[in-house]
Amino acid sequence: MPTPTLHDPALCQALLRRLEDLLDRPMRFMEVCGTHTVSIFRGGLRSLLPATVTHLTGPGCPVCVTHDREVAAFLRLAEEPGVIIATFGDLMRVPGPDGRSLKHAQAEGARVSVVYSPLDALTLAAEHPDATVVFLGVGFETTAPAVAATVLAAEARGLDNFALFSCHKLVPPALAALLADADNAIDAFLLPGHVSTVLGLEPFRFVAEDWRPWSRASSPPTSLTPSAAWPDSTGKAASRWKTPIPAPSATAATRGRGPSSRRSSAPATPCGGASEPSHKAGWRSIQPTSASTP
């Protein structure tokens, strides 16, 4: 008999029955990963959950949380003579304070190029030695290692006309900001699997020990379902330092810091130092959190 896969409807139904059996009170959980958001809605998970389970969508899209003042800075930079902006395509239409976006700037003559990898920006820099190519680094801990590797590659190739405008965000401070609101009514977080792969779970320990139960998961609906079943009626999670089933996308590092973050630690550290952040990071839709990466 074949082993059930994470896309097996029968397995999903069995996990949902388990969820109904385990819960003895209403539960509200929030995902904080854009990939989880897409998977939940694509798989119709909300329509399958028991009436006592409420799913909340958190600030998980790395582009959507880019603050409008950061977009305003991008637009000012695009107006500078001799500057080529290199960016991922999904940032092109994110509006700034006055509704203008990089797409508008491009239409008005600014040199804005869409790239598929940070390394593509190095190709632009090599092809345009008379210009300064600025890569717009947005996203969370998942994108930071590749961007850090690009900085190292630019140095190795001697491309002194390549620059990085980093607006990377840290996920743990965002969770702390949400939990600091006394009216948050969140019983559990579904932690981002990809970010957990990069960071490990140590940076999220405060959520379990100081605030709420939590779980991490990858993206298939049946991986999300048992994770939602994890919190119990006690509200205590100090002993819950594991997930009900291994999450395939988050198995590289289950404790401490992940291997990707170790490899990228040299070129990328928080502004002002890890212990003393020098500024607040802007998150569209929530209050400022502690420092982003530089």
Structure description:
- The chain has 294 residues and is of the alpha/beta class.
- It folds into two domains: 9-49 and 173-250, HypD, alpha/beta domain 1 (Rossmann fold); 68-168, HypD, alpha/beta domain 2 (Rossmann fold, 3-Layer(aba) Sandwich).
- The protein is 35% helix and 17% strand.
- It has helices spanning 9-22, 34-42, 45-48, 68-78, 102-107, 118-127, 144-157, 171-179, 193-199, 205-211, 221-228, 259-263; strands at 27-31, 53-57, 83-87, 112-114, 132-139, 162-168, 188-192, 214-217, 281-283, 286-289.
- The strands form three sheets. The chain has a four-stranded parallel beta sheet with strand order 2-1-7-8. Strands 4-3-5-6 form a four-stranded parallel beta sheet, sandwiched between helices.
- Helix 7 links the parallel strand 5 (132-139) and strand 6.
- Helix 1 packs parallel to helix 11 (221-228).
- The longest helix has 14 residues, at 9-22.
- The protein is elongated and about 65 Å long.
- The protein starts with 8 loop residues before the first helix and ends in a 5-residue tail after the last strand.
- The relative contact order is 0.16.
- Mean pLDDT is 74; it is low at 225-279 and 287-294.
